[in-house]
């Protein structure tokens, strides 16, 4: 069972944590791009999620990462996706028709769970990941379904996006194997480009 978040909103987090010391925000808007790739729990909060988001976005899509940079206790910076209201992220996704968020889950399993209200996009991501040899499944209920309209992945113009939850075991494997890392990135990019 995941521990409850220390902060219930970004505004609350900002009252206790210092940008540049405890966390950093990186954003790269791409003029005219209607797609945003986000890592709302990047850096040392959920390792490798920022790197994956930046690689998926490349130079084609908008990218945003909220990253923990503390020496310890980066989990304190986790604001759940349905409460993630960092102003730069909200502004970015409000301009986009397609929003994909990249997350990390604990556990040694080599698996991926795809959720979000954009079921067609989620199914394309799941299919492309499975075709690339990854153990992926679509979540339609439960804590990783990403169905809450307030989830940051669902706050774009369409009101529906996709979230990708990647177990720590697989993230460690992707860290070690550049070929698999690129296969993951390319699978998601293929799904988004459809």
UniProtKB/TrEMBL annotation:
Keywords: Hydrolase
The UniProt record lists the keyword Hydrolase: yes
InterPro entries: Gamma_PGA_hydro, Gamma_PGA_hydro_sf
Top-rank taxon, per record: Bacteria
Pfam family, one: Gamma_PGA_hydro
A GO molecular-function annotation: hydrolase activity
Protein name: Poly-gamma-glutamate hydrolase family protein
Source organism per UniProt: Sphingomonas rustica
């Amino acid at each position: 069972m995941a521990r409850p978040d220390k902060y219930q909103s970004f505004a609350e987090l900002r009252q206790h944590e210092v940008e540049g010391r405890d966390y950093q925000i990186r954003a790269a808007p791409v003029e005219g791009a209607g797609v945003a790739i986000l890592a709302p729990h990047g850096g040392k909060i959920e390792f490798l999620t920022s790197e994956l988001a930046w690689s998926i976005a490349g130079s084609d899509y908008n990218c945003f990462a909220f990253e923990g940079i503390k020496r310890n206790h980066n989990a304190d910076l986790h604001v759940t996706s349905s409460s993630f209201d960092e102003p730069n992220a909200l502004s970015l996704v409000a301009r986009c028709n397609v929003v994909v968020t990249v997350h990390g889950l604990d556990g040694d399993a080599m698996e991926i769970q795809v959720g979000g209200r954009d079921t067609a996009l989620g199914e394309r991501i799941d299919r492309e990941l499975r075709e690339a040899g990854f153990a992926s499944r679509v979540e339609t209920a439960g804590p990783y379904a990403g169905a809450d309209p307030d989830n940051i992945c669902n706050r774009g113009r369409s009101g529906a996006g996709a979230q990708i939850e990647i177990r720590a075991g697989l993230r460690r494997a992707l860290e070690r194997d550049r070929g698999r890392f690129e296969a993951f990135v390319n699978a998601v990019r293929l799904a988004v480009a459809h």
